[in-house]
From TrEMBL, chain A:
It holds the Pfam family SufBD_N. It comes from Marinibactrum halimedae. Belongs to the iron-sulfur cluster assembly SufBD family. This is Fe-S cluster assembly protein SufD. Residues 167-390 form the SUF system FeS cluster assembly SufBD core domain. It comes from the Bacteria. Residues 15-157 form the SUF system FeS cluster assembly SufBD N-terminal domain. The gene is sufD. One of its GO terms (biological process) is iron-sulfur cluster assembly. Signal peptide: none annotated.
Automatic annotation (TrEMBL), chain B:
GO terms for molecular function: ATP binding; ATP hydrolysis activity. Keywords: ATP-binding, Nucleotide-binding. It comes from Marinibactrum halimedae. This is ABC transporter ATP-binding protein. It comes from the Bacteria. Belongs to the ABC transporter superfamily. Ycf16 family.
Amino acid sequence: MSTWLANAIVRGTDVSDWLSEKRQAALGKLKQQSWPNRKTEAWKYTPVSVIDRGAFSPAVNDVDANAAIDAIDNLDASALVFLNGRYCEALSCKTLPEGVSITSFHNASAAQKEWALAQFASVKPDRHLFGLINDVLAEDGLLIDVEPGVQVTTLLRVVNLFSEGIEAHSRILVRVGKGAKLAIAEEFTNSTPSLNTSFAEYVIEDNAELEHYRFALQTGSALSVGGGHFKLHDHSKLHSTLVGFGSQLSRVDVDIEHAGQHAYAEKNVVYLLDGKEIFDLHSTIEHAKPNGTTEENVRGIVADQAKVVFNGRIHIHRDAQKTLAELNNRNLLLSRKAEVNTKPELEIYADDVRCAHGATVAELDTKALYYLQSRGVSRQDAQIMLNFGFINELVDRMPNEALATWLRSKLKVRFAQMKVSSPQDALVNS
Amino acid sequence: MSNALLSVTDLHASVEEKTILKGLNLTVNEGEVHAIMGPNGAGKSTLGYVLSGREGYEVNSGSAKLGEADLLDLDPEERAREGLFLAFQYPVEIPGVSNLEFLKAAVDAQREARGEEPLSSKDFLKQAREACKQVNLPADFLKRGVNEGFSGGEKKRNEIMQMLLLQPKLCILDESDSGLDIDALQVVAEGVNSQRDGKRSFVVVTHYQRLLDFIKPDFVHVLADGQIVKSGDASLALELEAQGYAWLQEQRARDAELLGEEHV
């Protein structure tokens, strides 16, 4: 048993607010769960012992804001800032787009509480241990409600900042009303030693559209476990991009449920890992209804002694006829000691579906290499261009160009650092 | 007498242990345009690949010089920096690498090899836009992945655009006309003709006389079974167009027979 978990359960017992009923239910489930070890399937390759080794103190109010919110050129956005897991109005944008209501847990009105109570822990499945912990301990969060038919063009940037040694838990509940449209980015870019869990539950109603980003760019000893959970209703659309760097513990659970017909989901994931970092992604796509489409592209570059864990499950229920689902995971390894544990899983109970999955540890395309060289580009530069192009292909798919430009430069900086620590020639000689 | 730019001497080359080039000789002087025609499988594309240094194309014997440089001793990028350019028959698609980034890297690498400063992004963009315009490609093609989702004709024009930017000494056009409609063909030909300046040389590999109506060759060679079997002026292309290659092969067989008789 983990001291940290035991302690979290004790702390959870004390939390009392309008979500208490939900929290108590989660607490009951949490008590049934055991702390993961190497035999726990969902945590087989990712040790969580690092949480017990750290000494984190729960967030206190009025922490001095080390508020480095990245300025992003040419981006139409409103920043919503969490400081150590608490919504910070002072740092957040004062002018918000019209037709969308944004409220913290503490300021929620009776009407807001009503839909939030219905949504809380209903999109996120119970099986996620840290999800339950977040149910119990997330003292603050945001309720974001887009009125039916409203097309929000301003991007909502949910920026998460942490002070050193802090433990923080935050939650986001988003409802995109019928025919509405929203774009939102969850940003984690700090690398101060800290622990956070951050879970988001999205309901996309009929004919609505959500453009979603999660930038899990914390590194080093910034420990982070989080999730993004999406429920898609009839004819709704989800375009979601997840970008991860590794840290001592960086885990994301994604669930996409096709709860309505003719829903479309595109999920693109990019990771870049270096040193001894870990990035762990578990994604589950549930096709419960017919005529749904899912395309999931997971790609990354792993250097040095870093480790990637990817578990991608697609579950097509008996009624989900005419489903189109595609999942692929492609990896480039830059060192012999880099590790990829990839496991695509297809479970199909309907007979009229089209599904494909695949996982590869890829080599560079020699034809492309020759093509670049034949124009005078050195072999080494051509390799760098192709490696970067391999992940940039998914960045190119991001609908928000300003955000893509910002991300590209961040990835390039990261990528350049990776080259130093593990040149490709070392691989050839080892 | 003009200066020899490309001298290929008795070149033997193989792919996967199959011998394709069997003693090929070719001299291209500065400012000349040579057309190479010939039946399928004769080794036309192989010549371009061997000269540009594609992996898997083994040179068994012979030599190839571009000016003073011994091409066969150089890496592909060094050959390009010496001024060799191959316009590919099937240009590869590279999603994720933008055309602009790729072209800037190529131009900068070649400038560096000549001891020149890299171009500023602004100057380069201006040149790239002009090159696009010249081959009738919209400028937003520069932002797209290299050849990604381009039609056959767009890929060929993208090759010519690269040639315009890189300003090579010798251009080998590997079936740059295949799959092109007449308008695209003219664009390609105009791109090439605009670069004829009395010094730059071209080797035009093609199946059809059609391209040679637009790019007038000084010499036409027939490549068959790994060798140049006949050379002539532009009229040879017309003759080939009219009669095909069969008559040539018959003639070769007769010649061989005659030679055989002489030895008896």
